[in-house]
């Protein structure tokens, strides 16, 4: 009984972690950018979806789309206002650009967080679920929204896989992640590919943010923990490896759920972090990392 | 009702609170069947509510402040059939209804005052003035902070000085009707040194419930505006 409960609850949260981390790892894989404003973009999406419904009185679907749209805009803004100027700068030495991007996106994330707190307070917000009610799964009362969340996450990740492996644009993205120089030699504009990737990333982070708002709720305080959780999942899975992140998301999601059920909800995140430290010792490149 | 589960966030302020809960709940005939303390940064309350439900209590006694919106929304989404009662700081704020998309419906919380509740003649004018200026009714801290400014100013006036010892002497003699009741303090030799005095005619606190998207006073009887009302997923064991 408890095992089934853990299986069901862990799946929804893991799927959500997976979706959140996928975009994060994709950006790193393709452009080498560790986007530390990730949590802020997710929260922006959720708060926008909340505001669309509560302040602008739009319906649930329009609200959710609005949230994803806001994430897309913020994602492009992150690229054009923060990342690209640093990458193109001639005054920052190349070997320091990574650290500048890290700091830049971190500060950008804090700016977004403070803006959200200023306009919408730091109270947690929740997005009205698209599907309400509960279903009984072998005696476990499960909110329909959890099932919906898991399904949407799997669907979106599946679509991403198709996009990357079966379309011309996707293949260009994949090629850029393997060998950026080679791609430019083939006549593809690297900047174009980056814009596509930041677009995909914005949509992924937006969907993950809105779903998170429906499932658990977010506040401006969630920004740091969300970035940290995506970061640790991605590091555990192997930086830049999408499949590694997916596996790591489920490992972390289930480890947290099992801890909450079997030990105490107070220690929920600790075993996953210990695992991360352990993996860093024996396999610094992560589970499926290439570098 | 015969059984209760205490559900508190793991923070310094809930430690004495939980001791009080453990001590007082049995006195009113509620057996504490489980006591859950969870991390204040918890976002997924599913395991917690499942644990609560497994203990089959008649009521959940809350001690929450850092969290509020999230457990309340998940309580509703998961249709946890047990009423929540106790301290829920975020529920004292009028914006709580919107933040939870009305999942707050049925939540019972302790307040010092509330919208449309004339705890004293000062309560309603203050709450209305606050709303006019800031757009929403004050949370618990709004009422207490407003009173504090006035009784501290009163003490300074009576002391005729801002020297600490003189102000403390004057504060010990405070007898101030604020928005939350009549404020008096225990003296320095009392076991509850300088604590606010609670009791009839002084400060009783009140219980409010979210009903129809509004905060409604339900206890004490003299100021109650409505009976208890719960959403349909709540299964009450007795009245």
TrEMBL record, chain A:
Record field: transmembrane: 6-28, 40-58, 64-83, 99-120, 147-164, 185-218, 230-254, 266-283
Bilayer topology term: Multi-pass membrane protein
Subcellular location: Cell membrane
Any one GO molecular-function label of the UniProt entry: transmembrane transporter activity
Keyword hit for Zinc-finger: no
InterPro entries for the chain: ABC_transp_permease, BCAA_transport_permease
Major site of localization recorded for this protein: membrane
UniProt keyword list: Amino-acid transport, Cell membrane, Membrane, Transmembrane, Transmembrane helix, Transport
Claim: Transcription regulation is one of the keywords in the record: no
Gene Ontology biological process terms in this record: amino acid transport
GO cellular component, one term: plasma membrane
Family under the similarity heading: Belongs to the binding-protein-dependent transport system permease family. LivHM subfamily.
Protein name (record): Amino acid/amide ABC transporter membrane protein 1 (HAAT family)
